[in-house]
Amino acid sequence: MEVQREQKTQGSIWNGQKSFVETAPHTSSMKLTQFLLFLYLHLSSCKCISVSGLPQEDLVDQKCLLNKYTHRSCNKVFCQPWQKCVEGSCVCKLPYQCPKTGTPVCTTNGRKYPTYCHQKSFECLQPETKFSNNGTCTAEGNFNVSLHYGNTYAEGIVRVRLVDQDEKMFICKKSWSMTEANVACVHLGFQQGALVARKRFNVPGDLLINSTECLHVRCRGIETSLAECTFTRRRTSGYQGLADVVCYTRDADSPSNQSFQCVNGKHIPQERVCNGVNECGDQSDELCCKACQGNAFLCKSGVCIPNEYKCNGEVDCITGEDESGCKETRHPQIHDNLARSDQDQEGETEETEILTADMDIERQRIKSLLPKLSCGVKRNTHIRRKRVIGGKPAEVGDYPWQVAIKDGERITCGGIYIGGCWVLTAAHCVRPSRYRHYQVWTALLDWLNPNSQLRVQTVNRVIVHEKYDGTTYQNDIALIEMKKSSGKKECELSNSVPACVPWSPYLFQPNDKCIISGWGREKDNQKVYSLRWGEVKLIGNCSQFYPNRYYEKEMQCAGTDDGSIDACKGDSGGPLVCKDVNNVTYIWGIVSWGENCGKPEFPGVYTRVANYFEWISYHVGRPLISQHNV
Ligand code: 4AZ
Is 177 a catalytic residue? Predict the structure, then answer.
C-alpha cells in the first residue's frame, strides 16, 4: 500500500483527472430498513417545527431511530458499572465482578447486600429486589412510595416513607420533573414510566397547609427505585405545592400524529424530543439527535444530555467532549437543586437537610474502581516537529501500533497491534495455511536500515473473517496471533503500544481527520522503505463514488478532496487511526481497497473496524479490548 504525498511540497503528487461519478440510487441493493425509511420520509406529510424553531427533520435522525436505541444501547451510551456491553446492549455482570469495597445496602424486600453494585447486579436477575437504603436493614421497615388522591391506581400525589423517618411525607412540586416522575412510576411497576409529571388533583385542605414541609428529590433518571434518588428536606415559609404524577398505562396514552413514539411504546409530545430530558424513561427520545433544543448539549455521537452534565466530572458523551476543555469540574447534584429553587423564590431563605445517601456518587465511585485498559496513548510523548501533512517519514514512536507483515522475504502488508499477542490486518493480506511463512515486525521504521527498537515475531495462527469475500472485499479483516517468546506468558513488545478498538460506530464521524500510515508504494510504483504517514478525512455517503460496491456498515471511505493523500498497494492491512478529544487513538479502519491510488473522487476504502468489535472480542477475549463496561 502506498501513502501518496503532495508533489508540490514533498516530491510526488497524484493529480488524477477529476472524474465525476453520478449519484444514482440503487434499489436492488436497498435494504429493507432503508426501504422503510424511504416510505416513512415520503409518506409522512408532517412538516413539524420544534420548539427550538428547527424543523423535526433537522432535529431527529430518522435513520438512526430505526435502530431503536435505548439507555441500554452501548453504541450510544456508557453502560452502568454493574453492566457490560455485549453485542451493542448493556447486560448485567455477575455480582462477584463488583468491586469489594463499599457500604452495605438494604433492599425493599429486606435483603442485605455488601455493596450497591452487588445489589444492582442482583436486581437484574430478580427485578423485585429494589434498593431501599444505604446501610443495614432496620427493624422499622423499608423505603416505600405510594400515590394518593388520584382517580385511578396509576395517578396521584406522591408520598414516600424514608427509612429512618417516622412519618410518611409528600414530595414538593418544585423539585419534581419528568425525570423523577419516570423513576417513581418505574418504582411502582409501570415499566414505561410516567405519562405526565404534573396534573392537579383535588387534595384535602389540611394537606395544603402542611405542605410547607415536603421532601425534595433529585434523580438521575436511570434509577429503578425512587430510593436511589437523593432526598432533602427544606423548610420554607410558604406553600410549596406537591408533586403528583400520572403513570403510563396503555389506556391513558393518547398518541397523535404530532407525538414521538418511544422505543418502550410510550408516546411523548414531539417538542420534548432531543431536549436533554429523558422523557421516555428509556432515553430513546435523546439518542438520535442532529441538534438539541432547550437546555441541552449535543454529543458528537448524536445524543442530547442536560447542560448540567457538562464539566461535572463524569463523562456522559461516549466521545468524551462533555468533559474536555473544562475550566473546573462542578459537582451539581444537590447544589443544583438548591440553585433551581433559589431562582424560583428569590429572597426566601431555605434550610436544607440531606436525608439520604447520594447513590449517584456511589455509582461514580464504583466506576472509578473498575479496571482500566491502557491503549491508544503513546508512551514517549515527544513533541513532534511541525510537518507538512503527508509525505514525511515517521519517527520512532510516532505509530507504535503499526506493524509490518513479512511473507517470506517481502514486506507485503501493514497491520495494527491491538494488545496481547494480537495484530489486526486485512483478510486479503493473509492466508491461515501460510502462517509459518509470516513474520510480524514491530516498532519498525525503515526496513533497509532496521532500527534498534525493531522486534521480529513469528506467528502462531491466522484467523480470517469467515464471511470475507475476495471479490467484493466485504469483511476484509483478519487477526494474527503472534507466538510468545519461549517460557513467557505474554507477548513482550516493549516498543509497541496497542491502538484502541472502537466499540461503537458513533465514535467518529464524516469529516473527522484521521491518519493513515504504511510502507506502501509511491505513485510511480517506487518502493518505499521508510514508514510514511498522511492525514485524511472520513468521507460519508461513499456509494456516490463506488455505486454498488460500497457497503456502508462494513466499509469506511477516507481521503482528501484532491486525492493527494491516499493509501495504495502495500499499505493494505495497515491502520487508519483517529484520535478522540482526549487524544486517545482508535483503529477506525484497515486499509482494504480503492479504485487506483491518489485519484480524486476515488477515495481509499477501509474496513470499518467498529463493525467488527464483537468478532474481534470473540477471538481475542473481551477484556483485552474493552475499555469500558468490561
Ligand atoms: C491495494 O492494492 C490498494 N487507494 C490499497 C488501497 C487502495 C488501492 C489499492 C486505495 O492494496
Answer: no
